[in-house]
Amino acid sequence: MRTPVRSRWEELRSQMWFLPGVLVVGGAALAEGLVRVDSAFGDTTGAAGSWLFSGSADAARTLLSAIAGSLLTALSISFSLTMVALQQASSQFSPRILRGFTSSRTTQLVVGAFSGTFIYALMVLRTVRSGEDGPAFVPGLAVTVAVVLAVACIGLLVLFIHRVSQSLQVSVVVSRLRDDLLEELEALHPGRSGDPAGGPGEVPGQVAALREELYDGPHALVRAERGGFVRDLETRVLLSAGEEHDAGRTLTVHVRAGVGSFVARGSVVAAVAPPPAEGTLNEVRRSVVLADERTPHRDPLFVVQQLVDVGLRALSPSTNDPTTAEHVLLHLGDALGTVAGRDLPSPVRLARDGRLRLLVERPDWPEHVDAAFSQLRRAGAEHVSVTLRLLEVLGALGERVPAGRAGPLLTQVRQVLELVPEQQQWTSEDRRQVHERAARLAADLARLEASGER
Question: DSSP state, 93?
Fold first, then answer.
């Protein structure tokens, strides 16, 4: 049951308001605590030590008011810079990368520090008394901490401006997306939840046999109660569902909706055989976590799509920046190379007691390759440099894939060969160069693929 908690925690942390909200509460609590310390142990007459604030009540009010007012101004500047960054990122790169900006820890920290210090200054300000309405009280320690926090906020503002200026650079955006993709690929390949059912070579036959066995006999369909994107599959919930099933029968569950796919309300998300109790069906339905938007968590193909979007926007007639598209191809090749030689997770899982068989939809190697290169190949067909860079990346991947897994790469190269005669805007030398390189690479990949079939 830790998976649901982790999924919701990741979603909460990515919200822009979360860290600022925590810091605002922390600022109020800190103010209350330091004022009590000053009241109990501090010198409230204004004659404190040299390192504490030792001014009068009027001076403390003026200082705290200045801190609160200036931080409110700085907070509005931070919001303005954030909005400009979001607008620029949406128009220049892709609206799908905005989540990376709003979930940035730097942005959240700056907004939270300004908001928290503002609340802190107001909370301390209300406790300052000049002696007209009672005993004089100047919380020297609390006012000193307010000055320290204000100085720290100035440093954070400088850091924030630096980060915003960097975040609008296409190289930084592409590198960040590449790092996100690597993180998700490393987390999912390999990944275990239950025991894999057999070795990699047995998977295709097992999947086909399992599907046939499930759908040929009595089975129950699980339908979605709402529409949305599949954000996560809580496999621990699915595997634990088998524990509540009759010990004499093995439960088979096929989750049709993979992470990142969209399901409509009332559509089938899973099938279960033999038909179990209603409680088990509800557990299966609950294990498919739906949300209104896709997120990178457990969905590397979404990060691939974000990178491809940046490349497509660069190749659009309004931008015409093939160099950025080439950089995107290089980063995609770098990321996919990390899993090129690995066995992808088996779509078949077994509960450890053998009472449940789980079949989930996972993107295979051909889907990774197609998602990364097909759109960019078509959009960059008019640019010789982009096509040559694509062949270079495919060749580099061909050196990293094991025998028998070069087929998707070979398909990409052959489609490049089909495009060469159609590019009338290319010179004859361009067509010759691309054709020779593609033909040579196709021959190498065909030999590699054939060696794995023996």
Answer: T
